[in-house]
Amino acid sequence: MTSQYRVNYHLRAHKRDHLIEFIKGMLLTPFVLQTEPLSTAYTDIFTNIEELINEHRLLHATSNTTRLSKIVPTIGSFFTPLPLARAFLHTDRKVNHILGRKHVPPSFNDVRRILNTAQVMAIAPQLKLVTFDGDMTLYADGANFEQDSLLTAQLVGLLKRGVAVAIVTAAGYGHNAAKYETRLSGLLKSFELARLSHKEVAQFFVLGGECNFLFKCNKQYRLEYVETPQLWTADQIARTLDVAEGELADCVRRMGIDAQIVRKPRAVGLVPRESLTREQLDECALSTQVALLSLQGSSDPGAAPVPFCAFNGGNDCWVDIGNKLIGVRIVQRLVCSPAHATLHIGDQFLSTGNDISTRTACCTCWIINPEETLAILTELDSFLPSDTPVVAAIDAVVAANANANASADADAGAGADTSS
């Protein structure tokens, strides 16, 4: 049994977040023992973990070993303190009701949400930049950012507050601004309805292909391509993509997958003709990671001669030149936002995802769908300084969207009457 457990653990390691697993394990003991009062036991645990994080922040720059790094060897940097005890009480009261549960202990998702809340509590006073993943963060996978999305008002509110906003997405359409405008048409229309000033929309950016294609919004609420320095030679890019393409083709052969291999200037992907399991897509991503790291003589995709991102996209698998770590840092330099004032929100923080690299550049929130993005932005809004008059602007967007929908329904109704 022990041997089988060890095998299963290693097979599942790419699906784990070791900090969350550590916290979850700590919370399990008082739950199993039914420690009374449970609220005190949980709060004490979160307070102790806060202290471990604070110590790690203090010593990490000068020492490779901290108490927390001994417990969680994969731990990275924390750019702000995390008020976990306060976040736990806030989340328990408003969302999860953990203290009222007798039979279900605190789960992975419970801890993930508490970490998210602690992060927005900590970063709110100095927030300068929020970056977002696209698919499954702002809109459904493969969908567009529609005008009636409740997230449009939240993003307008951030820009009204003077907070820069960027969408850092794997979607790669080269220099073709029109394709990105189509995906983001509802959001750009909402900027216009809210009458955002040139100064405000100039703080909105889109980075496609992880970090390869930069666009900014102009005063006509259109996207303009921004030339950026070439970080790698054409030969380096071609060699990397050749190896990735070969490995994906080998995955197709080994697993008998019915899929198309798609090659782009800065990416190569496996696009299935039939639905694949998560395990098959993880295998493609991990196989390609190993092949490229072996080629480049590095154990870290971000430190390789040509940084890359090989990830499970949910329905497909892609390998991009560069990664979101580089993408976020490009925007940070543009708006002069340090790590402790930058927040990245995304859904892909496992080792086969493409958001995980951003943890090296800034603070992060791990969500699983656009509904959770809306919830965390609503929480963030409640913690931001309230001296900026953004509520009226948000209400205006919501009202304008409602009017636009009502007009569209009326036009459709009139057309139906005419045709009959």
Automatic annotation (TrEMBL):
Homotetramer. Coiled coil: none annotated. The gene is ISN1. Its EC number is 3.1.3.99. Keywords: ATP-binding, Hydrolase, Magnesium, Metal-binding, Nucleotide metabolism, Nucleotide-binding. It comes from the Eukaryota. This is IMP-specific 5'-nucleotidase 1. The keyword ATP-binding applies. One of its GO terms (molecular function) is ATP binding. The keyword Ribosomal protein does not apply. It is an enzyme of class 3 (hydrolase). It catalyses: IMP + H2O = inosine + phosphate. Belongs to the ISN1 family. One of its GO terms (biological process) is nucleotide metabolic process. Its cofactor is Mg(2+). Pfam families: ISN1 (PF06437).
